[in-house]
Structures are given as structure tokens and as C-alpha cells.
Amino acid sequence: MIRVVVADDQALLRGSFRVLLETAGMQVVGEACTGVEAVDVTQRERPDVVLMDVRMPEMDGIEATRRICSSPVGARILILTMFNLDAYVFAALRAGASGFMLKDTAPGELLRAVEVVAAGDALLAPSVTRRLIDEFAQLPTAETVPVELSGLTVREREVLVLIARGLTNAELCDRLHVGPTTVKTHIGHLLTKVGVQTRAQLVMVAYESGLVERRR
Questions:
Q1: Distance (Å, rounded) from C-alpha 138 to C-alpha 112?
Q2: What is the Cα–Cα distance from 67 to 134, expressed in whole angstroms?
Q3: d(CA 143, CA 20)
Q4: Inter-helix orientation angle 87-95/128-137, to 10°
Q5: What angle do CA 146, 79, 109 make, to 5 degrees?
Q6: Is the pLDDT of residue 154 over 70?
Q7: Partners of 51 in the β-ladder
Q8: Which of 26, 98, 161, 184 pairs as cysteine with 21 (C-beta 3.0–4.6 A)?
Q9: Pick from 45, 109, 36: which is nearest to 75 by CA?
């Protein structure tokens, strides 16, 4: 059973998420209406997933995400917001969030997102991956490739470039002519070697390092 903490400053939304999750057989082990409460309940209950609102009082969801991801609790953060990749969400991805969904997402899609994130995979709403890439494509190009990329194999660099260009795991399988297990293995090696936690952070590294050519 997937254990979830729901963090949102609106009681009605927290209640709605609880009903949705529990109807689907998941267990809501805690709720929070501020970022401080989100950190506290997560450390206490050690859930699999935290549904994290971005804008909350006392401490916003970005700082709460950063504190949770830097702690040993092992919870994965799924960001929920009304704002499609605004600066707050962008920062949350940097802080280590594993997924990002809009609050107008269909209930079934949200449940699948929780399952994906709980399983250890990264997930971004369909409209987000391309915008994330576009955002990084406009950043100044780095002059040198960071040391952490020097240990990547030729194949791993190829996979990293394809991820940065927005390919899904299924598309990676087709492009590389390998199975899903092999793709997941490559991604796992990339996360470890590069020293990041999520697929979104891999995209950031690919562009920040200059490994992927930017738009002019």
C-alpha cells in the first residue's frame, strides 16, 4: 500500500485528495497546511510520496521539498500547483522533486502519477517536459563540461542527450533498440554518476554542462 502525505493550505483540497487516494487503495498517513508541517509530518510518518503544494504559509513547498529531499526519510515529492512551470515549480525541481502535476489533472492521471513516483520513477505533466527543456535551452552555455560527466560512457552520454531532448522511456527503447530494463539501468547509472535524484535534474545538467546544443 502506498503511503501518502498531503500538503496543501486549502482544507477542501486536502480532503478531496484524501478521498481520491483512499478510494484507490492508498493510505493517507498525514496532512499539512504549511511547509513547516509538511516537513514535520513527513519526518514523523516517512511516507512513500508527499503531494506538495507550492505556495503555502510559513514555509513554501520549495523549501519544504529541499529539506525533505536532503534528509534520510526517503519520501518522494510530487508537486501539485495551479501554475504551469512558474519560477516556484522550476526551483522545486532543482530542490529534488520527483514529479510535477497541475491541480486540474484528471483524477486517474493523478493516481497514476503517485504510483509512478512511488515506484521510484520521475514524472512530469505532459505539458511540462518540453517547457522545461525550452527553459534550459535559453540559458547561457557553459564553457566546460562538469567533472561529473567525465565518467560517463559513450552510451550514457547518448541516453542523457536523448532524455534532455524530451524522449520518454518507450521512445528511448525504440531509438536505442533495447528493452525497458536496459533503459532503466542506463538512467539509474546516470542518476548515480551525475549525482542527482530525478530525471528533471538530468535535463538541467545536460543543458547546463553544454552537452546538449542550445537554441539560438
A1: 32
A2: 28
A3: 48
A4: 90
A5: 115
A6: yes
A7: 6, 78
A8: 26
A9: 45
Q: Which long-range contacts (CB under 8 A, 24 or more apart) does 20-25 make?
A: 20/107, 20/110, 20/111, 21/111, 21/114, 24/111, 25/1
Q: What is the mean pLDDT of the chain?
A: 83
Is the whole model's pTM more than 0.70, yes or no? yes
Distances (CA, A) of 68 to 73, 98, 110, 180: 7, 12, 21, 30
- 97's CB contacts (< 8 A; 6+ apart) are 52, 65, 69, 77, 78, 79, 198, 200
Question: Is 45:27 a contact under the CB 8 Å cutoff?
Answer: no
User: What is the per-residue pLDDT across 65-78, written as a single tens digit (0 to 9) for each?
Assistant: 999 988 888 899 99
Alpha helices of 46-153 — where are they, by DSSP H? 61-69, 87-95, 107-118, 128-137
- Inter-residue contact 34 to 9 (CB < 8 Å): yes
Tell me the Ramachandran region of residue 166: left when phi exceeds 0, alpha when psi lies from -120 to 50, beta otherwise.
left
Cell numbers 521539498 correspond to what residue? 65
Residue pair 67/78 in contact (Cβ under 8 Å)? The answer is: no
